[in-house]
Write a structure and sequence with these properties.
- 2 copies of one chain form a homodimer.
- Chain A has 16 helices and 2 strands.
- With 329 residues, chain A is mainly alpha-helical.
- Chain A has a single domain (5-325), classed as Farnesyl Diphosphate Synthase, CATH 1.10.600.
- Chain A has a two-stranded antiparallel sheet with strand order 1-2.
- In chain A, a hairpin with a 2-residue loop joins strand 1 and strand 2 (98-99).
- In chain A, helix 4 (69-90) runs antiparallel to helix 6 and helix 7 (130-158) runs antiparallel to helix 8.
- In chain A, 52% of the residues are buried.
- Chain A binds chain B through residues 30-31, 33-34, 81, 85, 88-89, 107-109, 111-112, 114-116, 118-120, 122-123, 126, 130, 133-134, 137-138, 141-142, 144-145, 148-149, 151-153, 155-156, and chain B through 30-31, 33-34, 81, 85, 88-89, 107-109, 111-112, 114-116, 118-120, 122-123, 126, 130, 133-134, 137-138, 141-142, 144-145, 148-149, 151-153, 155-156.
Chain lengths: 329, 329
C-alpha cells in the first residue's frame, strides 16, 4: 500500500514547521564553538521521525498540531544530543552523510554540543502550553534517564559474549523505544487526549520503536553507505549485540559463526566480508526473521491504533507506520 | 569574624539533608555501568555550596527550607554533571582527592555519567512544589545553557593569546556565576519571596559567584594538592585564562612573563616551577589584587543583602559569604 498524496503533503508541511522551529531554537551565535557545531548538526536534516510522530499524535486526539510543536522539537533536539554523544562513544565518523561533530571538531566540542542540545531541548519544551507542561516535562525527563540507561546497556553488551533476545529487546526499548514512545505519548497529552488514548499512543510508539530499531540493525548490513549516510557494518565492527548478530549466533552453523566471530574480533570490515556476512544471513533466514519481526511489530502498532481511534483519526499514524515499514535508510 | 556556632550547626543539618537527598536521587543500580560512576562521584562529597545557598535563600525569604530541597539537589546534580564533563575536556585526573570518572572508567562512561546526571537533576527538580515549578524549571534550564556557553568560552580562551579582564569576567559569569546565581534565585522563588527579594538574591549569588571563581583561580596555584584535592596548577598547565594569568601578563616584567609563557607552552609543572610562579605573583601584587577583588565582591554581595533583608533574615547568607571569603579549598 502506498502513502496517500494527502498524507505526503501533510508530512511536507509538518516537516517544514519542525525544521523552521529547530533552526530558530539553535538561533544563538556566541560562542561560535558551541553554536556552530549545534547548527551544523541540526542542518544535516535527518528523518525527524520523532517530532513528526508527536505532531501526528496530537492531531490523532483532535488537536491543532501547533500546540505540540515546541515539545516535538524538544524531543528532536534531545534525540540529536544522543546522536552526538553516541557518535563519540561509538567512534563513528559519518552521520547523515556528513562528518560527525567529534570528527569535524574535537571530542571536547562534541561533548559540549550534546550538552548544549539538552539545554536547548528543555528550553523548547518550556514553550509547551502551561496546562500540560508539568506532566510533559516529567515524561520527557524520564525519557532522558531511560535513554542514558539504554546506551549504557548497549555499551555493556559490546563486551559480553552472550546476550539473549529478551535482553536485546529490553535494551532497545530503553535506548530507542522509549524516546519514540515519549514522542507519541507527549503528542497525546499536549493534545489533551484522554487517558485511554494517551496509553494507546504510548503503546503504539513502543511497537513502532521496536520495529524501527530492528530495521536499523538490518539496514546497518544490507543497505548501502550512499543511501544510509553512515558507515556500513558499523554495529558489526563494534561488536554491538544487534538483532541480526543474536540471530546469526542462534541460526548459523559452527563454521559460519566462527567466521562471524573472527569478523567481530578483528573489528575491520571490507566489502567482501560484508557480502559474505549477508550471504550467511540470507542462507540462515536471519533477514527473513528480522523482516517478520518488523512486520509483526508494525501490525501490533496498527492494531493498537485501530482499537482506540476511529479510522479517520487513526489514518495518519497508520500511514506513518507503513512508511517506517518501507524505509530504506 | 568567625562563624557562629548556631550557623555551623545549621550548615551541618542542611548538608546532611542534601547528602541524603542526593544519594536517594541516584538510587538506581541497573545498569551498573551508569549508576556506579554516578554514585561514586556523588559520594566524594564536595562542598555542596550551591544547594546550601538555595536552602539558605529559601530561609532568607522566610520559608521552610524543605520546600527547596529538591531544587537545591537538582542544582548540585547539575553542577556534578558539569564537573564530570569538564574533567574529560580538561583531562584532569583528580577531583576531590579521587580519580575522576574518565580516569577510573573511560571517556565513554564519563560522557554517559554526565548525561545521566542531567536527567537525574531534572527528575529531582520535578519534585519542586507545583506552584513554583514552572518559573523554577525555566531558570534552571537557562542556567544549563549558560553554563555550556561559559565552558565553551573557557575552552576557546585556552587557544587565545590575549584575553581582557572584561572578557574574563563575562566568561566566569556564565561558567560559574550563573549557576550560583540560579541557586540563590531559585531558593527565593521556591520560598515565595517577592520580586525585589528574588532579584536581590540573584545579584547576591552573582557577586558571590565572582568571588568564588577568582578564589578558585588563586587556589589553583597557592593551595596544596592535599588541601585542594585536585591537581595543583592545572589551570596553568592547560593554558586557561584565569584572573591570575591575566593579571600576571599585565603586571609582571617582560622577563618574568617570558618565563610564565614558557611554562604555559610546555604545559608541564613541577614544584619548583610552581614556587617560582608564586614568587612572581607575590612580587607583582597579583595575589594582593586577587584578594582585593574577592573582598570587594563579597562586600558587594553583603551590601545587596543588607539593603533588602532585615538583619536577622540576612544573617545566614552573611555568614555564608564569610565562609566563602575564608575558604582554603
Amino acid at each position: 500500500m502506498d502513502l496517500t498524496a494527502e498524507f505526503k503533503a501533510t508530512l511536507v508541511e509538518l516537516r517544514r514547521e519542525v525544521d523552521t522551529y529547530l533552526i530558530k531554537s539553535a538561533g544563538a551565535s556566541y560562542p561560535a564553538s558551541l553554536y556552530q557545531p549545534i547548527n551544523y548538526f541540526l542542518e544535516f536534516g535527518g528523518k525527524r521521525l520523532r517530532p513528526l510522530l508527536t505532531l501526528l499524535s496530537c492531531r490523532a486526539v483532535g488537536c491543532d498540531y501547533r500546540e505540540a510543536l515546541p515539545a516535538a522539537c524538544a524531543i528532536e533536539l534531545l534525540h540529536n544530543f544522543t546522536l552526538v554523544h553516541d557518535d563519540i562513544m561509538d567512534q563513528d565518523s559519518l552521520r547523515r552523510g556528513q562528518a560527525t561533530v567529534h570528527t569535524r571538531w574535537s571530542e571536547s566540542v562534541a561533548i559540549l554540543t550534546g550538552d548544549g542540545l539538552i539545554g536547548l531541548a528543555y528550553r523548547a519544551l518550556m514553550n509547551t502550553p502551561s496546562e500540560t507542561l508539568q506532566p510533559v516535562t516529567k515524561i520527557f525527563t524520564e525519557g532522558v534517564i531511560r535513554v542514558c540507561e539504554g546506551q549504557a546497556i548497549d555499551k555493556d553488551f559490546e563486551g559480553m559474549e552472550e546476550v539473549s533476545i529478551a535482553e536485546y529487546f529490553d535494551m532497545i526499548q530503553k535506548k530507542t523505544g522509549e524516546l519514540i514512545a515519549v514522542s507519541t505519548e507527549i503528542g497525546g497529552i499536549v493534545g489533551k487526549g484522554d487517558a485511554v488514548q494517551v496509553r494507546a499512543l504510548r503503546a503504539f510508539g513502543e511497537a513502532i520503536g521496536r520495529a524501527f530499531q530492528v530495521q536499523d540493525d538490518l539496514l546497518d548490513i544490507i543497505s548501502s553507505e550512499e543511501v544510509l549516510g553512515k558507515d556500513l557494518g558499523s554495529d558489526l565492527a563494534q561488536g554491538k549485540k544487534t538483532f541480526v548478530i543474536i540471530k546469526l549466533k542462534e541460526l548459523s552453523s559452527a563454521e559460519e559463526w566462527e567466521f562471524i566471530q573472527s569478523v567481530l574480533r578483528s573489528r575491520r570490515l571490507d566489502k567482501d566480508i560484508l557480502e559474505r556476512v549477508k550471504a550467511i544471513m540470507r542462507k540462515n533466514g536471519v533477514i527473513d526473521q528480522a523482516e517478520r519481526q518488523i512486520q509483526r511489530d508494525v501490525r501490533q502498532a496498527q492494531d493498537i491504533l485501530l482499537k482506540t481511534f476511529p479510522p479517520d483519526r487513526a489514518e495518519e499514524l497508520m500511514q506513518f507506520s507503513l512508511m517506517i515499514l518501507n524505509r530504506k535508510y
